[in-house]
Amino acid sequence: MIYLDNAATTMRKPQQVIDAVVAAMGSLGNAGRGAGAGAMGAARVVHECRERTAVLLGCPRADHVAFAPNSTAALNCAINGLVGKGDRVVTTVLEHNSVLRPLNRLAAEKGVIVEHAGCDGLGRLDMAELERLVAPGTRAVVVTGASNVTGNAVDISAVARIAHAAGALVIVDASQIAGVLPIDMAAHGLDVVCFTGHKALMGPQGTGGLAVAEGIDVRPWNVGGTGVHSFDAMQPEGWPTRLEAGTLNGHGLAGLCAGLAFIEENGGVTAMGAHEESLARRFYEGVRGIEGVTVYGDWPAHPAGASRPGIVALNIEGLASAEVSDMLMQGWGIATRPGAHCAPLMHEALGTREQGVVRFSTSWFTTEAEIDAAIDAVRELAA
Q1: Which listed site, 38, 105, 287, 382, has its alpha carbon 20 to 30 Å from 131?
Q2: Distance of alpha carbon 134 from alpha carbon 90, whole angstroms
Q3: How far is CA 111 from its chain centroid?
């Protein structure tokens, strides 16, 4: 199979990630729940993963990295922990339902006012509209680091400047950029960065979390057992315990830690991202001139070598995206992602609500031969 659905999950993992999970399954106990060898081993793995994550995200304090099952859980934690009754929040049409649905529920249940900045014809965020919407009194700006539909990257530094000028917090959904685009919370002025481990970070599913800048008081969303302060009636206040109720996925975090080490060993985020983008650009250049094929996103205006995730979204005239994706799998063994990608407002903006799009997404393990085979398959289908 030619796997080009890495924006959903990286199916091909480094061998050291697999080995780390297998080893953990046979040796790790429960971090923070005892002083035996298994519990202490788990605590060390979690601590190392926390430190590696802090370095990757430019988070000055490793203890302000709190783990969660995925970026959806992390975003729920951040949004519900920072936004309250009657607050005003600005987000964008580029967002995934992991942002939209928590905000929609807060709007329905707590009267939170939610505004959405739009995009241009290429799907690029309208920064001027965002700036107009982020008025003084705005509680938070919630923005994706890159669209999971088009791959268009967002200037999160500029968003942070706009947010802070109005006294607002900035929460970044880094699901599509962590591991492929550089993130420096301190330098970019980011208050909260939510991430998932199972995409470009090369970790297992069921791993992720949020990194929180110092001084940002995120109210605990989930509460319960922490292994410490058991007689306290309320969730302990210390970091990261306040945001980590329940048993952590120690086995998964062992794999995520190995994935982070793999990134470091292969030139870091910049090298990994450049590789993925170069393969995506090769695919874009190969399909953009095919008759009947429409490619979405900012590729026409995107300079070669500039940073963006390795995502190319397209449609073939007269065919539903699900039909194209199925034919690619059945006829050529090429795995892609069709449909709405849990990003309804992005599809409304692109005019693809009914057809959806077919998303091709690369990884470190994608080869030029696989890209060329996918180009040939699209050409045959279009013909």
Answers
A1: 105
A2: 6
A3: 27
